[in-house]
Design brief:
The structure is a homodimer.
Chain A (H helix, E strand, L loop, with lengths): L6 H12 L1 H7 L2 H4 L6 E2 L11 H9 L16 H15 L8 E4 L2 H12 L5 E6 L5 H7 L3 E6 L9 H7 L4 E7 L11 H18 L4 E5 L22 E6 H4 L8 E4 L7 H13 L8 H10 L6 H17 L3 E2 L7 E5 L5 H10 L2 E2 L1 E2 L8 E5 L4 H12 L14
Helix pairs in contact in A: 1-7, 4-12, 5-12, 6-11, 8-9, 13-15
Amino acid sequence: MEHRISRQMTDATDAYGRRLGAYLEQSSYSRLRGGPGVIDLAFGDPHEFPAPALVEVLQRHLSPQHTDWFAYTRDHPPAQESVAATLSRELALPFTADDVALTNGAFAGLTICLRSVCDPGDEVVYLDPAWFYYEPIIASVGAVPRPVALTPGSWRLDAELVAAAITPRTSAVIVNSPNNPTGAVYTDEEYAALAEVLREASARNGRPVYLLSDEAYRRIVFDGRSCPSPATHYPFTFLVHTYTKTLLLPGERVGYVAIPPTMPDPAVLRRALTVARLTTGWAFPNNSLLFALPELEQHALQVKPIEQRRDLLVDALREAGYEVQPSEGTFYLLARVPDADDWAHAAVLEERGLLVLPASVMGAPGYLRLSLTVTDDMLEETIGRLRSARPSTREHASVQR
Amino acid sequence: MEHRISRQMTDATDAYGRRLGAYLEQSSYSRLRGGPGVIDLAFGDPHEFPAPALVEVLQRHLSPQHTDWFAYTRDHPPAQESVAATLSRELALPFTADDVALTNGAFAGLTICLRSVCDPGDEVVYLDPAWFYYEPIIASVGAVPRPVALTPGSWRLDAELVAAAITPRTSAVIVNSPNNPTGAVYTDEEYAALAEVLREASARNGRPVYLLSDEAYRRIVFDGRSCPSPATHYPFTFLVHTYTKTLLLPGERVGYVAIPPTMPDPAVLRRALTVARLTTGWAFPNNSLLFALPELEQHALQVKPIEQRRDLLVDALREAGYEVQPSEGTFYLLARVPDADDWAHAAVLEERGLLVLPASVMGAPGYLRLSLTVTDDMLEETIGRLRSARPSTREHASVQR
């Protein structure tokens, strides 16, 4: 008897296969990763040991300080208060602890928001290029992904393009700034225009078009920038954050969804987000991370070294014949290949032991994504190999699809 | 503008409110818990410090042993192999690492299975009394919960009752043994009869009726029992386990879904369970727990002290006028009140500082659930207070609904 996988998980599996799955299964990444001399610039993973002080914080909060230490714990007021204090300071809005729903990372944050506001058949708009998991997560809740193609190269948030993509079935729009993979940090002006579009669409549709603001990288901004949030412009916003980027610890998951104090009738949403966490695999952080959170708020990656690596890599990529704009934030650079075939160029670099992501799998065909989380030594080696692998060498590549 | 919460999360919220939410919000539990002299027998939470050796295992696996330690990690072959070895030994079936999908606990295990095989409008059968989260989780995937009322007092798995509840829309049946709250451990004979029913129903429906076997308590069995699994009787079984009970660490979440080696075409399910974990809030365990798992497999609660507490509490409850059968496993005892009003009796005990769960919220009206995870001192005090709070005192209670 044949299996009967649900429509939603079938669609999510197809969406996954079209984007990230295509790379992991059709490239040599999984085979080459970790091999001798291979430098992995494909993903934003850590390549150095975390700061000992950070490990100490994590370990200390695994030492039980009372007998309830490992009991079921949902929210934890000191953790929520520390988040509310940070957001209040950064966004000049009076967030309270109740506005903060703690999660085990941004996967969970995005999923509980979509499960809370999307009915099957609803549409969710997001901007392409995009994180490769938006489409599978949207499909998994039975909603229809509606990607909006941004103008290549500038990648600015274009509210008019969003407006054109909204229909009466649109229940949510996802934006992501600092943006993975483009590196763009959206401005208050861009958010103000978007808010106007969403207000009009909500009024027209007779239901709120919710805004999911994926701010996973909100503390990874360069050149002295701050990171605006649409939460200061549009009340129906879910601000989704995770510490896994800020601390470069994707394997230990803690984050939150915050709703702005301007949100009407917040109790309805708070209850939905609680039940959504209960029914999305207990999407609360593990206790040790929950208890550590006020201290984790004080830790953060040093951004300056990432910025310096960005500058070195931008120069090297340009010298090697790629078009590239310096990122304004995130762990990534997006480099345009001369002839639009990102898979072929990724294969050329792969032959030189450089693993980079063909950004086709993020909706940016013709671009490569490179991660700045490599070490300085790995970067120096990368730059040397880029010099010996100018784009013109691609005719020698054995391209794998 | 009013919020528009999805139908599925609205239904899940209602289901939650009817069961656990009703207790947490309408009883004095949340106010009294942790107060001086208050003994919490309502939930299976730890009340003693965990073994130092267990804490040491957890902390040691937070010490990075290589620079990839905190990188994104999905499955981890040594962890999967240790699970497969245990299950192969216990169930005499040749499980392999690929049969094991690691999760951050049983909430996640159940949720990824249901999201993988249930379409909106499908029906999911489960046996009442039941864990209070089945109904919200089922509702959250858009399926219709179909509780089957077991015969009170015996609470045996009755395959004929399951057969009568299955319709052409049934995509899954959930069973739970050792059973929370009844304490029943189902036998191989009961599972063989159930398997026959499910095989016939699958053939009749032209699609598999999947069996979700919630075996969270499979290592908490008393009187020298073993714990059979339906995975040895029915190929279309998901065996869901979590270490949070075995280690009494609900706050640090790690578990798995295993499919039996008899499962036809397992690749289809493995892929669905992977995408379901990605789209259910990254439902993989945190790295430190993933890496610790082979050692955690060697740790387990001592069952004998729980069994001894069971015996003492059974005697005390009987002496106090309750009908109670000794549990065969789990952390719980189910005690029948003389006049069917479990809320009133819970309120009487609450006045004496004993927090117990009115089992109405688990589909067992007229029963109280008491947890055996209290300390020996707490148990002694509980027994003393039970003696002074015979059921006949209930007319003095101020009952809160």
